[in-house]
Amino acid sequence: MKNIAAQMVNFDREQMRRIANNMPEQYDEKPQVQQVAQIINGVFSQLLATFPASLANR
Question: Is the pTM of this model over 0.85?
């Protein structure tokens, strides 16, 4: 978790630097969306493997 927090701080610091120098902010949303989708799919796969009886109710 410290690594994620450090990345967020560094990203915010870079964005503030860009704003202070009248440069446009950088948005990197598309790769993040794909990464989040992969994480969520992995979590659901693990949940289905852990609780296979939940498939019977689908």
Answer: no
The span from the CA of 54 to the CA of 49, in Å, is 10
pLDDT digits (tens, 9 = 90+) for 31-51: 677 888 888 999 999 888 888
**Residue linked to tokens 């852990």:** 50
- Domain chopping of the chain, boundaries: 2-57
Whole-angstrom CA distances from 37 to 2, 10, 46, 49 are 22, 23, 14, 18
What sections of the chain are H helices per DSSP? 2-20, 29-50
Q: Who contacts 24 (Cβ-Cβ below 8 Å, separation ≥6)?
A: 18
